[in-house]
Write a structure and sequence with these properties.
Elements: H1 29-39, H2 49-96, H3 107-122, E1 126-133, E2 136-143, H4 158-171, E3 178-184, E4 193-199, H5 207-229
Antiparallel strand pairs: 1-2, 2-4, 3-4
Helix pairs in contact: 2-4, 2-5
């Protein structure tokens, strides 16, 4: 089975004492094992084409969402977002399958380490993480595979994947009172994407979901305007 050591070529938090006790599993492990053992070692395979392939898939996802919003309205939006949430939930469950909370690991450490797995494995990104206190962590995305293709509003599609990944934590009763938000993104013109996670009551709801609903409202308004014009806005920053 693929272990944490396989990821060290892409990120390394071994300088942090808690990382040695943190456990996770690679999602889609069988296919990843084949890639590492049978494909990446071949001289006739260029690993960079995985970015091209992934960008095509990512573009298709946002275009499917936009088309369903434009042609089917709120119900089309609901079907796509629920599908993406379920995919994120499945990926999170695979990461946490059979995992127990490590003895002595703080909630802040677990939140930060889980975010690293999401950022550096599921999103194939480069990050700069920070554990700021026992109740707050943050991370900056230094490079994201989507940053040169997605427009600022397109990034909303990723919120549903992340929602599912967070629900996988909640199923285990972990980090149930932590909030998540972003403060800036590369497609919107920032040098890095920055996200924060902090421990806070949820009497007024989960902020990630609340902001997602606001973006959904704006998306449906844009879709209605496109229907009236009979046009479609393409994805991309160019």
């Amino acid at each position: 089975m693929l272990g944490k050591e396989a990821a060290m070529a892409h990120y390394d938090r071994s300088g942090e004492e808690g990382w040695a006790r943190f456990r996770f599993k690679f999602p889609y492990a069988a296919g990843l094992q084949r890639l590492r053992e049978e494909v990446l070692t071949r001289p006739d395979f260029d690993p960079a084409v995985l970015w091209v392939w992934g960008t095509m898939q990512a573009t298709a996802v946002i275009e499917i969402l936009k088309a369903c919003e434009r042609d089917l309205g709120e119900e089309g939006q609901r079907v796509v977002k629920e599908t993406l949430r379920k995919v994120g939930l499945d990926a999170g469950r695979q990461i946490l399958e059979g995992v127990e909370w490590p003895e002595g690991l703080s909630e802040a450490e677990f939140a930060s380490f889980y975010a690293t797995v999401i950022n550096c494995i599921l999103y194939a990104s480069l990050e700069d993480p920070s554990i700021e206190s026992e109740d707050r962590v943050s991370f900056q995305i230094l490079w994201c595979p989507h940053q040169d293709q997605y427009g600022a509003f397109d990034c909303r599609v990723q919120r549903y994947f992340v929602q599912g990944m967070l629900e996988a934590l909640q199923e285990k009763g972990w980090l149930t009172d932590w909030q998540v938000r972003f403060t800036r993104t590369i497609p919107a013109g920032a040098e890095t994407c920055r996200f924060e996670m902090w421990k806070a009551p949820r009497e007024e709801g989960f902020l990630w979901e609340i902001y997602s609903r606001e973006l959904e409202r704006k998306a449906l308004e844009k879709a209605a305007q496109e229907r009236e014009r009979g046009t479609r806005e393409p994805s991309g920053r160019g």
